[in-house]
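Hi D.,

Good news: the full-assembly prediction came through. Inputs first.
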Amino acid sequence: MIKVTIVDDHVIFAEGLESIFSDAHDIQILARCHNAEAFWTVMDSNNIDVVLLDISLPDVSGLNLCEQIVRKYPNTRVIALTMHDEPSLVKKMIKKGAMAYLLKNTTKSELLAAIRTVYSGKKYYNENLMQLLLESEDKPKKNPAMGGRPHLTRREKEVLELIAEGLTTQQIADKLFVTIKAVEFHRSSLLTKFGTQNTPSMIKEAIEYEFIS
Amino acid sequence: MNLFRKILSSLFCTLLFCAAWAQKQYPDLKDRYSPPQIDSLIKIYKANNDARGLGIAYELKGIFFQNIYFYSTATVNNFFISSQYYFKNDDFESYYRVKKRIADLFSIDDAMYTRAVDYYREALGYFQERGDVSEIAGYKLDLLNIAINKDSLREGPNGSIFPDVVQTLKTTIEQCKKLQDKSYLTYAYNLYASYLLQKRELDEAENYIDMSLKMSEPKTQLELLNFFHKGLIKKLKNNLPEAVVLLRKSELIAEIRNNKYLMQLICQNLAECYTALNNQAEAINYWKKTAAAFNRFYNSGETQLTRNEFTSNELRVITMEQQLAEQKQRYWNAILYSIFVALVLSGIIAYLIFKSRMREKDLINQRKISALELKSMKSLIEGQEKERNRVAKDLHDGLGANLSSIKLFIESQRDKYDATIQTQFLNPLAKNIDDACLETRSISHDLRPFSLKYGFNSALGDLVKKVQTALPQTEVIFHSYGEEPQIGEEIALMVYRIVQELLNNAAKYAKATQITLQIFYEPEQLSVHVEDDGQGFDLQKVKEGNGLGNIRSRVDYLGGQVIWQAAPQQGTAVILSIPLQNPFKNLG
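Then the structure:
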């Protein structure tokens, strides 16, 4: 028997969720908790296998709660069940130890599959989630300290070329029909991107990466 | 027919005019007048320079619009003009009565209720000076209403209207009893009940509601509130059938009184009750009604316009006062000039002193205006955010969760039906609900970017991904440089909104093939660069349209700088730099 607790502050939803398991004989809903405080009382006096956890809760953030559950009860599996579909939240929740991430409009079969999968100790990632995690895979950061050719915008390239030609800020501004302030902004972002403090070494880097010849 | 009506109405006006002239009788505020009647009254009073008459006429006009449109530009503006005429006439009782009408409307508007508090307090001060016990009790109740029903003012050292809301409420109830004023007592009991309701002391709350309900006149605002609150109590006690009956009663009155604000709350609660009762047809019906009422109250340009117009109206009055002061100054200068002729030496000294004092006053006035501009901008922006936050939360936690519940219901019943019904009926239904969920999430996220709480940069990443999904033809590049520093919640939200607007502009107007968003983090400031290769625009021609003004006012508010680089066919580049310490943080 898999012992499950629902943590969700929306009473109607939690009730509806419980009713879905009425004919799943290997799953028992032990409690419905509407805040973290109530949840810990249940958690500390029972052996809970799986927690269905919402991210937005009245008293704490679901992210923190997830982390605490995993730390305190390493054998308990957490499934995030939420309305939020922002990729950054999904990633953070997985990082905090959630074994599955489902949206609240999930299907019955998926819910059952997820509970059984995480109970057996495996992670449950559905197709949507995989897609999401793959798509938002961090592109390699153009970190100047790490080296690598920085990404420059068209306007930055223009300013860079004119700096290399030895024009003053005023001259560059006149030539590009922009304000001096704008040129200064571009210059400072160029310095950041090449990871240098001054113009000569920036030009040296720029030549190395063949932005200018 | 039309001619006949015109003759009749002019006849009526002549009669009114004669009556007014003969006995100085003014129309009764309790009577209903049509706009043409009121307008001809205004004409007559203007001709006679009758400030009191004009005050009354504009008040009547405001009442007329309030009955039709409830909270609207026309309502608020007419009341405002009326209050100015009463003020001119030194008729302070009427002045505060009309201002109370405005404040009552503002008190329900998340963006304007602080203004309502100012108005009530001003009036309270006036009546306290005059020792008018009955008026004092009334205004205290109005302030308590805001203190109890508008969350943000209830807590926090700066926000609270009364140091101890319950205590004030209790003493005010005693005062109302002493005054033997039935309507105040009805109001007070209702407020106490709604306080108890928030504390979830349901039985006690129901007692007070019943007392209030017994005393309230049929079809009044108070009866409406009482039915609504009693419905809420029953709903919380899980007595749903009774809750539905009570809420439907309040719906009827809200309809009659055209109270759009309460309407949306009533419909939302009804929808929740019906969802819990598994009456899906009515539930969906009421969710639709909720959305419609939401739209009418919040998204209609009308509410927005009301706020903006009113703020600029107030500014105009201050500017007028300043002009008056200048005129006076000129007048004094003339007198001083003759003194100067008579007594040259002392004249010079007096003049110099006076002049410098005047200049000082002038400067102070000017500063007052710009401080007020900034303050009203601040309260407008803050109010909008607060309101968006609330609507988003309601959508997300209310509509969203209920949609999910309906989906769950379908899922739990699914196995009872055979395969054909599943594919032909249940699957499309489930798909519809999924789409609605997606839509709700997306609207709610636009209104209140939830992931912003968990990091600014990653929230921007989500935003970029969303824009990218919506624009498969355009490449959206996002790079950030430097360590993300601690960014205050307010600044983070504002910059997020600006970036959102910039990306939307680039996507919508520029037809770009590539949009680049770059963020440079520094310990003390952050700069945002948004560049696109779209069609650009002529900066000279566009000036502040296109949401540019919107962005500029937000940047001004944050004390930052913004630079636009744009020319036709050359793409657009926008650079912002925002200090991470908000200089206006401590502004009233």
